[in-house]
């Protein structure tokens, strides 16, 4: 096989002729061996392992278009079952009636949530007889500077002012006081993040909702909340069952999550659920006569594989509530244990402890002058570990941190090996007189803002 490979493989242009399928496979397979080991990637939140049965099920569904509900009615049924399961998990008043859908990921889900918030605001102004032209009447969305970049994209694509509340001091995410201070009559909603990608912390959703309740009583402004639960919406129900963050709070209009993060499915699926039909304006839902059927659709794309939807339903069926709780509790236990041990090494100051999302961040203590977190990240990469180092956003760009994401598959034993390699890295770095790497050398872009 290897001897039959041509001396030069065209990479940037379509080959002139055909190639044996086994040879084509081997060429692509060999190149992909140069990728990192997904199990050692502590930068990504995305699921990197599923059971063989899930792999087989997805392979059987690769040819199914989830949007074609007439041709694939059972796939459509699985999608709606998942929506109802999530609606019940997140305490929707009427889970069987709560509208929702699958998406390609939480970013698309956030776009749909933002569109629904904007349309509700527009309709409310129309009913009130308010007709103000931009920029005076330009809608705005209040959120912390720690939101994922998809919210910046939403604001840019749909002409909404992003009111980003900057970090300040030890406040690294949105608080109730800051949220209300940035709201006015043109605010379409407040985004509360259940699990910041910077440090794994939960934003205080209940406090934000309570503050907005007070604002409504004092001013009449009725501002809904969207919970971006890309990660936390599949952690909190199992690890923090008494935490009020979901539809138990009447002001929460919608919730999204990533099925391919702590939903435990391979990349390519997200979910969004609205409290009830009133939270999703009907004029955003299109009814399309496509391939022989009349289908309601609310999405930013059309054709989409059904394999991930089938895999999500399989995982819900396979694990159930108790299974998810066991997996997520284990991840949190690994995260909190690893955070504590890293905190006791000496050079690090923990920003979070892994006790909300199984994610934590740490910075170097001020007295450490011979190396940077970027040096630590580079040394760990030599041992195969991908642990991102990055600076925080505007107003806290002085804060540089390492972030550790614990997912299903990072066991206590692997965490021990990581700790051993971290000790080795620190021993090597202590020989340096000064840092060799800064933010400009980082290969990891946090993704909350585009690079300049």
From TrEMBL:
Drop me one GO molecular function for this one: pyridoxal phosphate binding
The UniProt keywords, alphabetically, are: Decarboxylase, Lyase, Pyridoxal phosphate
> What would be one Gene Ontology cellular-component term for the protein?
cytosol
Its Enzyme Commission number(s) read 4.1.1.15
The cofactor required is: pyridoxal 5'-phosphate
Q: What class of enzyme is it?
A: lyase
Xref: Pfam families: Pyridoxal_deC
Q: Which reaction does it catalyse?
A: L-glutamate + H(+) = 4-aminobutanoate + CO2
One GO biological process term is:
L-glutamate catabolic process
- Residue positions, PTM N6-(pyridoxal phosphate)lysine: 261
* The keyword Transcription regulation appears for this protein: no
Family according to the record:
Belongs to the group II decarboxylase family.
Q: Which PANTHER family match?
A: GLUTAMATE DECARBOXYLASE
Official protein name in the record: Glutamate decarboxylase
Taxonomic lineage is: Bacteria, Bacillati, Actinomycetota, Actinomycetes, Kitasatosporales
């Amino acid at each position: 096989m290897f001897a039959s490979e041509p001396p030069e493989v065209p990479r940037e242009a379509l080959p002139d002729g055909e190639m044996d399928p086994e040879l084509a496979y081997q060429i692509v397979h060999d190149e992909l061996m140069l990728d990192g080991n997904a199990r050692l990637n502590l930068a990504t939140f995305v699921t990197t392992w599923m059971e063989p049965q899930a792999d087989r099920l997805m392979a059987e569904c690769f040819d199914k278009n989830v949007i074609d509900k007439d041709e694939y009615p059972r796939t459509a049924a699985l999608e709606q079952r998942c929506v109802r399961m999530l609606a019940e998990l997140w305490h929707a008043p009427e889970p069987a009636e709560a509208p929702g859908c699958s998406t390609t990921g939480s970013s698309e889900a956030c776009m749909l949530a933002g569109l629904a918030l904007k349309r509700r605001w527009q309709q409310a102004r129309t009913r009130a007889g308010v007709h103000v032209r931009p920029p005076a009447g330009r809608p705005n969305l209040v959120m912390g500077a720690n939101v994922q970049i998809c919210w910046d994209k939403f604001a840019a694509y749909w002409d909404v002012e992003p009111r980003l509340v900057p970090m300040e001091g030890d406040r690294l995410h949105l608080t109730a006081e800051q949220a209300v201070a940035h709201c006015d009559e043109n605010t379409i909603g407040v985004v509360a993040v259940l699990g910041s990608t910077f440090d794994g912390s939960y934003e205080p959703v209940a406090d934000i909702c309570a503050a907005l309740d007070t604002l409504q009583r004092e001013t009449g402004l009725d501002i809904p909340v969207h919970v971006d639960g890309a990660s936390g919406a599949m952690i909190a129900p199992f690890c923090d069952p008494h935490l009020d963050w979901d539809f138990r709070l009447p002001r929460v209009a919608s919730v999204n999550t990533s099925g391919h993060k702590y939903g435990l499915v391979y990349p390519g699926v997200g979910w969004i659920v609205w409290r009830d039909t009133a939270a999703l304006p009907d004029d955003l839902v299109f009814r399309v006569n496509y391939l022989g059927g009349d289908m309601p659709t609310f999405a930013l794309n059309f054709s989409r594989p059904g394999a991930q939807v089938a895999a999500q339903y399989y995982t819900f069926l396979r694990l159930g509530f108790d299974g998810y709780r066991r997996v997520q509790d284990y991840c949190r236990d690994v995260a909190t244990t690893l955070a504590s041990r890293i905190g006791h090494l000496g050079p690090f100051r923990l920003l979070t402890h892994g006790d909300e999302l199984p994610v934590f961040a740490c910075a170097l203590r001020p007295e450490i002058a011979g190396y940077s977190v970027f040096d630590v990240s580079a040394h760990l990469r030599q041992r195969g570990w991908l642990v991102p180092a990055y600076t925080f956003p505007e107003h806290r760009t002085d804060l540089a941190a390492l972030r550790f994401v614990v997912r299903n598959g990072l066991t206590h034993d692997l965490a021990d090996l990581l700790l051993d390699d971290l000790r080795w890295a620190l021993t090597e770095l202590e020989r340096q007189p000064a840092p060799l790497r800064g933010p400009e050398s980082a290969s990891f872009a946090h993704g909350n803002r585009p690079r300049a």
